[in-house]
Amino acid sequence: MNDQLTARLAGPPPQPGIFDELSKREIRRAMLSGIAIPGYQVPFGSREMPVARGWGSGGLQATLSLVGEDSRLKVIDQGEDAGVNASNLRRLVVSHVGCEEETDTRHADIIQSRHRIPEQPLRDGQVLVLQVPGAEPLAGIVRDMDEQRRMHAEADYAKMWVRLYEDVVHNGLITAAAGYPVLVEGRYIMTPSPIPRWDVPKLDRSEAITVLSAGREKRIFAVPPHTSVVPLTFEDRPFEVEHTPGAACRLCGSADTYIVQEPAADGRFTTWVCSDTDFCRRRRTGDAPAPAQPVQGETA
Amino acid sequence: MTESLLRPARTSAAHTGTLVRALRRGPRESQRDFTVLLDVLARPGRIGRLDVPDGAPAAAVAACGLADVEVPLHVLTGGDPEYDAWAEAAHTATRAPRAALSAARCVVALRPLTAPDVAALHRGRPLDPERGARVFAQVDTLADASDGAPDTVAADVLVLALTGPGVPGERRVAVRGLAADVVDALGRANAGFPCGVDVFLLARDASVTGLPRTTRVRLVRGV
């Protein structure tokens, strides 16, 4: 209603858009700071977006600051290019910027993702934008945000280690599943967004730039290429990734990718499929790297 | 008399307009600039290339794509009238507020950067290290020296060996127009990570390389 009145009084806005240059510049500066201080959460003024906060508004702002007309953009939700969140974000950016849509990981310049890192190893020249629902790895340990900032500033992570130790004592293993805490370049503890453990080793010394953006919490952080990202664990408790013995993708037969259970008609979960649909499709046509031998999975 | 003739007519609206126009970056240009700046900062020692209008100092152009009313800016001109005019134009084009060198979030060095400049820069605090200065320093030339023998370069060229995040192994760049004591001063400014300063070096031909605070710089050869 208000929009109609404004348009009638003042005419349509001169450049229809969803993101102004002032906002883009602030996010670009935050990204550069994030690259210069790997793993540090740079505060930024998160804008209102045409998606609700918690639905990728942070990733959307980062992507809109990165893309140009000549970019190829891939957006995935849980490894799936056709997911509702992914399709809509991709459509929004493509129609706003006029860049190219892409689903093949190898040809994308910018990959915005919710919950996964593609199976295809990323390359130099690509930027992975991860949507982050909870940016603070210390949130479940201390509640006071000033104290969280102090702990990061002083690299005082004793309470994080106590938490992990208690986890081992109570449960026999570190139970953190998605968003497993990592140490970046030996200095900052960071949450890698809710990617499965399977994807955590892909962040270590990656060829691509990783940008993590939390719209709700108004923070951007980043990992440059060739940077050490180490999952937190103890010497006698090796970091383990998800693995179900004997399970393989129903479609491509892969047992060396991240696979998820799918519901059958009766509601029971009996079969598995690749989470990364692009990689699965290319495996079936022989256009993807062959399975690693022997099947990896136990430790990373 | 001669001096007043050489000084660009700062009162002349036409001349000011030319400089402001050269520095003002539109949406497409600032997106392309940023793509290059992000790439070279994430991969220290890699040399990128900006698209800069003829005659404009690349350091000022690069800064103007990122600065705005929210970014306190300081331009080092050394009293050179031409550089002073570019400094005025940078403030006008971006509306960035003026700040003392020690308080600036963004610093453009049109005259050669010196070690006392680097020592005076704000480095941020452990609670807000992102407030450390971002420096755009004009140099004469930049070249990749990763596979060249350091002895083959000219006498006034510094060869810097870079290691750290973003660098697989080691990269080397040859820089003309940067003083060796600036490299030492940068090392001291960045000794207290996460506090520190991030530097972009920009050559006359608009090539650019990044030296984030995480990069360890070793002087392989230099005067």
TrEMBL record, chain B:
<keyword id="KW-0456">Lyase</keyword>
<dbReference type="GO" id="GO:0016829">
    <property type="term" value="F:lyase activity"/>
</dbReference>
<dbReference type="InterPro" id="IPR038058">
    <property type="entry name" value="PhnH-like_sp"/>
</dbReference>
<dbReference type="InterPro" id="IPR008772">
    <property type="entry name" value="Phosphonate_metab_PhnH"/>
</dbReference>
<dbReference type="Pfam" id="PF05845">
    <property type="entry name" value="PhnH"/>
</dbReference>
<protein>
    <submittedName>
        <fullName>Phosphonate C-P lyase system protein PhnH</fullName>
    </submittedName>
</protein>
<dbReference type="GO" id="GO:0019634">
    <property type="term" value="P:organic phosphonate metabolic process"/>
</dbReference>
